[in-house]
Amino acid sequence: MPLGTIAVYNDTDGVGIITDENGERRPFSGMETQTTREGQRVAFEVVGAKATNVIAVR
Question: Is 30 helix (H, G, I), strand (E, B) or coil?
Fold first, then answer.
């Protein structure tokens, strides 16, 4: 699974952006994640251009 950081998260829309280690930015939905905290390191899967199954890196 790629690693990245939650760059932004919008509580109102329930969506955010993850920046991966290569600097690519991928959208994700709060429905697909265990964490929505900006700056949180995460691991995720990729479906198309979207991040999914986002989990916090401890």
Answer: helix
